[in-house]
Amino acid sequence: MSRSLVHSSARSLPLLAAKPLDDPTKAIAATLKIDPRDSIESVRSNLSALGDLSHLKFNCPHSTLHNSTRSPNITIPMQLDTIFQAVGFGNSNAFSIPAMSGINSAFVHDIFLPIAINNSLPQIPHQENFIKPRGLDGSQCHLPIQTNKFYGNLLSTNQSTPIWTNPYSLWWHPGGNGTAPGVDVAHIDENQKVFGKGNSSANAEYFFSPVGLTSLRFSAREFAANHCHLILDSPSQQSINMNIDANCGSLKLPLVQGMAFVTGIYSNLVPQFYSTFHIHSLTRVHSAPESFKYLVHLNDSKVWAVYIFPNAGTFRIDFNLHIINNSFIEASCEFSGVIQIAKIPITHTGHFLNTECVEQAVYDFHAGSYPTGVTLSGCVGGSSGSYSFNYVVCSLRGAPVLTYLFPHHVASITEGLKTPLQLVSTVRGTMTAFFGNRLTFTETDLPVYVGFMPYSPKRPFACYSDLQLQSIAAAAAKEAARDVVNESNLQSMYFSGKVLQKYALVCLVVSSIMNNKDLTDKLLANLKAAFARFSQNVQQHPLVYDITWKGISSSAGIKDGTIQDFGNSQFNDHHFHYGYFVHTAAIIGHLDPTWISDNKDYVNNLIRDVANPSTSDIHFPQFRSFDWFAGHSWAAGITPRGDGKDEESSSEDYNFYYGMKLWGHVTGDEVMEARANLMLAIQKRSMNSYMLLGSTNKIEPKSFVMNYVSGILLENKLNYTTYFSGLEQCILGIHMLPTTGISGYIRSAEFVRHEWNDKVASLISSVADGWKGILYLDYAIAEPAAAYDFFANRAFNLSFLDDGMSLTWSLAYSASLA
């Protein structure tokens, strides 16, 4: 059987069948043992027999992203070129060998440069949102307001719903039942978490940390007699300030993700603390000069350290805290200064009253330092990239700030010093405290080698048999003839985007694999026309620019606050929805670069809405969806959530940043492309820590990991379900779709194989709708031949394709990896 090879670094590659070699090239080819089905490691090994490889052209496998101005390439000698062509590799214009020492691309010193700073899309009208931020300082309402961050509940109608900085949770308590208003603080240990069993297996269906268990409440005597309100200011990427004002004084709490201390800044108030647990004891212990330290032992056996730093010149030796009753602690006098609390881990190092234990020693050293904000910085060079959290620090005694980090941080940190302090998070395992006013993390496997076509780390070249090409061509002929313009004319940005990306991938196959120019031109013209409906903003529910929160959203629901199109006007799921459009635009621009100029502003504005990289761009919040501390995006927008922000689909999350990467490439925006590569690498690490699980996962509870996916990941809960169905094919499949060139980078073949064997195999025969195709196309990452056979079956039922899938792409994807 003859085979043809397509290397995905070719934009439009002729299909070359293997042909007989003439004697000289046959002898050399036999010596090199070059075969298009070889792994790249084998090709490298055989080429090394040549000795000096300085004349070879090196570039990345499975990539359309080669460009001599950005990657240092050198030519392939004519002799080798002839050999490669003879064995089916093509010629030097279509084939390149991966560099032995990794991938080189432009070095980007600052990946957070703005995409643009204007707001010039005349086709998108401005509209006020029915839902307004609550409690935000009026002087800041003209600025972009974050909609999908950890503190979102504070900006909602019910400000008393908890938020999670991790490891702590906090919430505003309006007072009542004899208690004054204030900010409640809690930390839940692993043995306090609640697990629920599913009906179909012994695995836990969900687990969460109980809420409302107040360890200590920051309050003041004066609050009880005043009508206090919560005022918020300085909302940013990883921080916000909570303020409570009384007529005579105030309390400010700067909240930052990962903060080791909860800090209250008092001004002219008598501090007061309340607990839902009985206070077992209050012990004053040795402290630094002109400061105080107390240990609060609660009857839940938990111990909290309290550090008190009066303002300069206000230290009073007679100041003290004392127990009023079983639930109240109060200061002896008015106070201005800083009070910090921190949960003490009780470990084998000793009893909590042993102030020499190492955990308390760490807290003691860093007490008096606290962050008030965070800025991001980052750079990318080749396949490595780094990002830093630069803390804005107030340090009363000169110590660096102490921060609790998630496991995915610990695995990648390259700047910052580790301590023995550990506390469990809500749903992301055990956090470890590091100190440093700047913490830097490095990823060394950026997907610079992943382009438009399917990617597998083991198969750098895509080989297709004649029979496979015939099957792909037959499917493409039918699907390319469909009416993409009307099929994408839907009331939903989400479902319309899925249709557009489906046909964009068909067009990519027709061009890059089939090399069928006539069919490409026909489908591409229809795809452009379908996309134009949205870029011209004449779809059924046009987009608007939301002047309340600052962003681009659907007009459906924005005037009355109703949930339409999954809550797009409430800033739900923007990365899911717009990712399909960005990916589609990248493919169109890849196939026809002349199309880019007329559509660049529209696509860039969709990207800015979701992932504006710079605070210099005042028309959108910085990184609305992506949480640099969590390592992935959040889907929930401006409506309150009892368990915090959520993410239901890991795959539609990275689909956005994959589309952004490709769009950055076709538009020549090296900064955007580099930034997307780093974000994808971060997602790979975080998602394989908290969303894509299995027996090898040591972070999540043993009783949950064999579900294989998180289901809905919330800040305070993992729930093995979806919002639309409890069927397992849906729970698993929503973390698969859409399967594209980046899928094999995030979802390893090992994970996919184990998930199939342990979960999918037992249910696949009973699935009779589009989820069957979703499950099988994902299976191609591990077992491409089996997946191809499923799609290539002459009796294949088209109802097994999801509305965002095509048979053309399914065949091409699985065949390319086989």
UniProtKB/TrEMBL annotation:
Please, which domain of life does this record's source organism belong to? Answer: Eukaryota
Any idea which UniProt keywords this protein has?
Carbohydrate metabolism, Cell wall biogenesis/degradation, Glycosidase, Hydrolase, Polysaccharide degradation
| Pfam families registered for this protein in UniProt | Glyco_hydro81C, Glyco_hydro_81
**Glycosyl hydrolase family 81 N-terminal domain boundaries:** 140-457
Any GO MF annotation of the entry: glucan endo-1,3-beta-D-glucosidase activity
- Ranges for domain Glycosyl hydrolase family 81 C-terminal come to 464-811
This protein's record includes keyword ATP-binding: no
Q: Which reaction does it catalyse?
A: Hydrolysis of (1->3)-beta-D-glucosidic linkages in (1->3)-beta-D-glucans
Q: Which BP terms in the Gene Ontology apply to this protein?
A: cell wall organization; polysaccharide catabolic process
GO terms for cellular component: cell surface
Q: What is its EC number?
A: 3.2.1.39
- Record-stated family: Belongs to the glycosyl hydrolase 81 family.
Q: What is this protein called?
A: glucan endo-1,3-beta-D-glucosidase
